[in-house]
Design brief:
8-stranded mixed beta sheet, 50% helix
Length: 408
């Protein structure tokens, strides 16, 4: 999985408008954006991205919420941000908090429904709207608590190194640094990657240069007025370092989005997997996982690729890497998942073990929530369309076709 993340973080071309030449940035931008719920899959991707990216490159995480900043996913994302920062304090972690509501969804519903087609259920709209708004990555910037603490003054060589860091980072290599590569190859984990970050040097790379939105996409049509692009250069913040201030209105300029598709389908992360295991044992579970992978292209991948591409970004899926998938197929199913254990323990057992091994035990125990429930868009939609969550459940609301509901 580390190798899968490495491949998807390194091959990122700089976007240059026609007729213009590349312009070096005084400070690095993040080459990738990770859709971040604070759960097992996204936190594992964030941790591995830290291991493979050059040391001074920021990592952007984006979380969307429809409950005034208090949804379960928002709480989990903030908690996971602090846990990541505690294990990797030298990394520039940036959590973009997108706060939305049903009114904003309604305003963009025609565009979202066009992207969703032929999918057209209430569940598709809820998932699609949350994903589309998250990929837009326009929100308030949140920093780890440790990052916001006053910096201790230093002098001499330390000041010289600090002042040189942005210039070094602006020319970061598109492949991982030698020191980080050695750590990744040896399976050294978070601690060794953090050590490598402290000792490695930076070289030239397109992956850390600024991006730009295609004017034909949603990103190109949205006004940037009042939004700070994900490049610290020119952003009012830390007077000493030109840093991006926490709480600033912020918009990611990353052109690649890392998604966790395939983790639940291969590692038994859904509630229906427990039902199948309860009724059919390990053989039944294996059949259900195979079915999930066979229909994933139809249920998820095409739909979500269109939603991401609408912002001029590319969706990349480390959990669907052929090497990673082959490794799972060679692993006994009881090592991948043990559904005799409770939620948060037995499901995605192998991924939880990886997180715990990397020093992230809180994230390793987090219970799975689907995006429509973790963001609270599902609850709000159910109340508006059916009167209550209970009434929605009675009608199996997730499978109701939108045109049927609206005609009624």
């Amino acid at each position: 999985l580390r190798h899968a993340v490495q491949l998807r973080c390194c091959c990122i071309e700089q976007h240059v408008a026609p007729g213009k030449s590349p312009q070096p940035n005084p400070s690095p931008t993040s080459p990738v954006l990770i859709l971040f719920s604070g759960g097992v899959d996204s936190t594992l991707l964030a941790a591995l991205t830290h291991e493979v990216l050059p040391p001074h490159v920021p990592i952007e995480l984006c979380n969307v919420c429809f409950a005034g900043g208090s949804s379960p996913d928002r709480v989990a994302a903030r908690d996971a941000l602090e846990e990541l920062a505690a294990v990797a304090p030298s990394r520039d972690w940036r959590l973009i908090e997108v706060d939305s509501n049903l009114e904003e969804v309604d305003a963009h519903s025609a565009r979202i429904l066009t992207l969703l087609h032929p999918a057209g259920t209430i569940m598709d709209l809820n998932i699609g709207a949350a994903l589309w708004l998250a990929v837009g990555a326009r929100g308030k910037l949140r920093r780890p608590v440790s990052w916001c603490m006053p910096k201790q003054p230093s002098g001499g060589a330390s000041d010289a190194a600090a002042s040189a860091a942005p210039e070094a980072a602006a020319s970061a290599v598109s492949t991982i640094t030698t020191a980080s590569a050695a750590s990744a190859a040896s399976g050294g984990g978070f601690a060794k990657a953090e050590e490598a970050i402290g000792s490695s040097s930076m070289k030239s790379s397109p992956c850390c240069q600024g991006g730009g939105a295609d004017p034909g996409t949603a990103a190109g049509k949205e006004s940037l007025e009042g939004w700070q692009l994900g490049n610290p250069g020119g952003i009012a913040g830390d007077d000493e370092g030109g840093d991006v201030a926490a709480g600033a209105r912020y918009r990611s300029s990353a052109r690649v989005v890392l998604l966790g598709h395939g983790a639940d389908e291969q590692c038994a992360g859904y509630g229906r997997h427990r039902t199948r295991f309860r009724n059919g044992g390990m053989a039944g579970l294996a059949e259900e996982l195979t079915l999930d992978m066979q229909r994933m292209w139809l249920r998820n991948l095409g739909r979500d690729d269109r939603l991401v591409a609408d912002w001029g970004k590319e969706a990349r899926h480390p959990f669907l890497d052929e090497g990673f998938m082959a490794a799972l197929l060679d692993t006994p199913l009881h090592a991948i998942a043990d559904l005799r254990a409770p939620p948060g323990t037995g499901d995605k057992r192998i991924l939880r073990a990886a997180l715990a091994q990397m020093g992230l035990p809180k994230a390793a125990k987090r219970v799975k929530r689907a995006i429509q429930f973790g963001t609270r868009i599902g609850k709000l939609s159910n109340i508006r369309e059916f009167g209550s969550n209970r009434a929605a459940n009675t009608r199996n609301a997730g499978t109701v076709e939108l045109h049927t509901l609206w005609q009624h």
